[in-house]
Design a protein that fits this description.
Blueprint (H helix, E strand, L loop, with lengths): L3 H17 L16 H27 L7 H34 L3
Helix pairs in contact: 2-3
């Protein structure tokens, strides 16, 4: 999966790695100008969770016989939840790969 958001995060990681200059590179103070990576990651995970919960509620409502919920609406919500979960999994996989690559670097 080639998500522009994933590529943006990876580009930021590469830029920070270059600026750091390795394990003993210059130390910068945390900038309060932009969003924190951890906060951004948490917000994305929360959004995926909300998408999955909403899809589950729609599926439950449809299976309970709610006349206001259509099958197409349920299927679209479930597919949206699936795609967002796959994207989150891909981000996690790439973060793990980047971490493993950093751990293999020689000092």
């Amino acid at each position: 999966m080639n998500d522009p958001h994933i590529e943006s995060v990876l580009q930021q990681m590469r830029q920070l790695s270059t600026e750091a200059g390795g394990p003993h590179g210059p130390q910068r103070e945390a900038s309060s100008e932009g969003p924190n990576f951890g906060e951004m990651l948490k917000a994305s995970i929360d959004q995926v969770n909300e998408t999955q919960q909403a899809a589950g509620k729609l599926a439950d409502a449809f299976s309970s016989g709610d006349k206001e919920v259509e099958l197409t609406e349920v299927m679209l919500a479930l597919q949206k939840a699936d795609v967002s979960f796959q994207a989150m999994s891909e981000v996690r996989n790439r973060l793990v790969e980047a971490y493993q690559e950093i751990m293999r670097m020689q000092i």
